[in-house]
Write a structure and sequence with these properties.
Elements (H helix, E strand, L loop, with lengths): L6 E6 L6 E4 L1 H10 L17 E6 L14 E4 L3 E5 H7 L7 E8 L2 E8 L12 E2 L13 E3 L1 E2 L20 E3 L5 H7 L5 E8 L1
Parallel strand pairs: 3-6, 10-12
Antiparallel strand pairs: 1-11, 1-12, 2-3, 4-5, 5-7, 6-7, 8-9
């Protein structure tokens, strides 16, 4: 395991960058075949076919000055990499990452699929947000999220079952975070997560 000091969550900034959306044809095919795309921690490489995607531009985005990023969001929790970014990431992120081919109007991009989960949460220090019914809130489930550094196996990129579909990275050498910073890649906003 590589040493690291900080842990980060991340997302796409919708005020700066365009998002991708599956083409209407892709959505129809998925519904017809009963194969809705779920980036839920399971491998998808064996049943993957090239996914058609387009930039999601609506009437509000036309004059918003949104940029085309190096790493784009596909929905709220999935990420698609340009082929240049894939070339940087693939040798470094580990064997638990799948790069699934997408067709962006004739240009090849790759959906990032993170397979598996790590048990890296510090259960003693993490505090959940509960609703009035005593259930953990769906939108903001944590008052305090704490990662146990000694439990992190893949310092480049991982996720935990408790954090759902959110990906987590560290500042370790050749991590997702470090590679983005070193190569000035656009599209991702990082926020630090408490780690002990």
């Amino acid at each position: 395991m590589k040493s690291f000091n900080k842990v980060y969550g991340f997302n796409i900034n919708p005020d700066l960058y365009l998002y991708l959306n599956e083409t209407g044809f892709e959505q129809t095919m998925q519904l017809t075949e009963g194969q809705i795309l779920l980036f839920d921690g399971h491998s998808m490489i064996d049943n993957w076919r090239t996914l058609g995607v387009n930039w999601l531009i609506d009437e509000h985005d036309v004059n918003a000055g949104l940029q085309i990023p190096d790493i784009a969001g596909l929905g709220a929790t999935s990420y698609v990499l340009s082929k240049e970014v894939k070339a940087i990431m693939e040798p470094n992120l580990g064997h638990n990452v799948e790069y699934l081919k997408c067709d962006l109007q004739g240009e090849t991009w790759y959906a990032l699929n993170l397979v598996g989960f790590e048990d890296a949460l510090n259960h003693d220090l993490t505090e959940h947000n509960y609703n009035k019914r005593g259930e953990i809130k769906m939108i903001k489930p944590f008052k305090r999220l704490v990662i146990d550094k000694s439990k992190v196996e893949n310092t480049a990129l991982f996720r935990t079952k408790e954090t759902g579909l959110s990906y987590i990275t560290t500042d370790a050498e050749n991590s997702f975070y470090s590679l983005i910073k070193e190569n000035n890649l656009t599209g991702i906003d990082f926020h630090e997560i408490e780690a002990i």
